[in-house]
Amino acid sequence: MQEEAPAYRTTIAVQGTRVHNLKDVSVEIPRDKFVVITGLSGSGKSSLAFDTIYAEGQRRYMESLSTYAKRFIAQVEKPDVDFVYGLSPVISIEQKTIARNPRSTVGTLTDVSSYLNLLFATIADASCPYTGEPIPVKTSGNIVESILALPFDTEFELLAPIFQVYGEEPKFLFNEVRKLGCRTVLIDGERVDLTQEVPQALGSDQELMAVVDRFTLVAGVEKQLKAAVEHALRVGDSLMTLRIVSGMNKRDSQKYLREFGSKTHGLVYGDIVPDFFMFNNPESACRTCGGVGRDKQTHPELLVTNPERSIRAGCFLRDAYSYKPDNHAGYVLYSLADKYGFSLDTPWSDLSKEQQDLVMYGTKGELLQLKIPPEAKDPKERWLRWPSNFQGIAGQIEQHYRWYRQRGVPSSGMEDYLDRVMVEYQCADCKGSRLRSTRMLFRINGCSIYDLGQMNFDELAPFLSTIKPTGPHGQAGLQVLAEIRKRLDLLLGIGLDYLNFNRTSGSLSGGEAQRIRLSTQIGSGLMGMLYVLDEPSIGLHPKDNVKMINTLRSLRDLGNTVIVVEHDEETIRSADHIVELGPGPGIHGGEVVATGSLKNILDCRRSPTGQYFSGAKRIDTPESRREANEKSLTIRGASENNLKNIDVEIPLGLFVCVSGASGSGKSTLVNEILYKELWKQLVDTRSLSGSHESLDGTEHLTRVIN
Ligand SMILES: [Zn+2]
Fold first, then answer.
1. pLDDT for 504-541, tens place per residue?
2. Are 585 and 594 spatial neighbours (Cβ–Cβ below 8 Å)?
3. Chain mean position to CA 679
4. Which string of b and e fits 675-690 if b means at least 16 CB within 10 Å?
5. Where are the alpha helices (DSSP H) in 80-166?
6. Which residue ranges form the domains of the chain, and what is each CATH number?
7. If you measure from the C-alpha of residue 279 to the centroid of ligand 1, how many angstroms do you get, rounded to a whole number?
8. Ligand 1 geometric centre to CA of 166 (Å)
9. How far is the C-alpha of 460 from the C-alpha of 462, rounded, in Å?
10. Which of 54, 272, 562, 565 is the most buried (most CB within 10 A)?
11. ipTM of model over 0.85
């Protein structure tokens, strides 16, 4: 007799679950199928899917870990269920937004950022920061080899270009260069000894090169030279060049340098690795914002909270400035008003623009001779001895902030203070790219890594197909491209064509975050898993819902069980198996009303879902709708995100629905513009709303609730 293979379990059997309102429910769910658990709100759907099946699967997985590993994870309580048979490792994909961390983006979530970094390190073309000419990318070993090809006894210097730091004086930069062990800098070719006097100001187009080391090429110098080249690359942010001092005539040395590096400067990039493009690496991150892409700045509107008051009467936000005739700042402001001919008693809004700017941004280097305010109770003559340099109220706060950032020691008190007097803007240094400007010199088909991240997925896909990697790393480049392509196709397939890789995770809706996680799960290609999802249709336009259902099916076709908690008719109709809980909410629910295929549900008289689907019951469209009253809100010129300068009128006193395809700008219009502007006008004037020209009709409202 032929021996039969042992039969595998084909179902997940839940026996006697009493979690929350579930009434000792026992149910069998087929494995490797697309299963929908439905029912009225509060009927116990989530209690069955998440709090029983997922929780028990998770608990048993944890149980299987060693005692040592268990010390590092929170223990999960055993759900109130007799037994669950046939469980697989379970993964839940919920609606919650994943990370509020500003360093998390769609790119890092999907791992595509790492592949983009790798792609740029492999096949990007580099160009010169001064002239835009192409610069070769080599390894430090290659660089040492070509230096060793110089004639013996040639004397040369290793130079590393250095770049000015945004918002800092030259002194700061030169100090940093000295800390790296260089004491000489060439400014436009002119030697400056850093231990002596250094220039106070630099033009933005001046070329700065640090002299890193000086060599004479003799036998046995290789090891030392290699270390020096590596150090030069560190000083020059992966860029370096040579200067031939003696031992070669001018023509030969120029010819040599042209072959060594770029045409004009003989610059060469060395040891470019993927981390060079990673904004979460401190060496590559923008120095102003530290790789967050946003930076705090002062905002005149926020600092002057009472423009109808004068400076003396307290027009400023109290934390920013309040006039006291007896402190030094009081002397300064009194003397400023005296010198420039305005009064501290004039309401702020009546001061001229020039006078306001003087108070806000200072005298721009012009020194101020201090005077004692007549109302000072305890005049301090010693403060008058030196003229004062006034940076303005906003200027002082910003300088304070930069100093705080550079010190690098976070303090919550300081953060709170800064939050009150400053607002977050796109970082002015990196323009939101999060990376140092030298990273933008690497381009593929004319686009930097930031440009690629800004492209919406439906633009990025055709762009990627135009990339034809050639050269020594062409083959490697093709493989990386294929990996990016694979992940991008999954994101497109799930209806996220309007997102881009630079979007921060915090700005994603719960549904978008869920779909991204879903796409990474499919990308992982695991089989034999049990996935539990929470209403994936929420927030989806019907056209995208079809894509979502297809994605869930492909997850099943990989060999997984997919359990979805869902109300959506189309999803329910697409399921292989349906479990309906009910019949009512809360204590009236908690029982299995119907289970089986769609036909079983339709035939079941007790099933509300079946009754509605089969048309036995329906929700009528109301015959009469409420008349609009005359009042309305009008948003004009809305242009935040992808909104194209639109005007929208919203009638008041009605139940209004804003509809449109996913990513069409519904949330931007309602949350970013309408809600935030109402909040600003009705509650807190310090908030900033999305870009629009005006919002009329707020006089009809007294409150806004989110
Ligand atoms: Zn920045």
1. 888 888 888 889 999 988 888 899 999 999 998 887 77
2. no
3. 25
4. bbbbbbbeeeebeebb
5. 106-109, 112-123, 140-148
6. 11-96+525-613 (3.40.50.300), 125-272 (3.30.190.20), 296-423 (1.10.8.280), 632-700 (no CATH)
7. 10
8. 9
9. 6
10. 562
11. yes
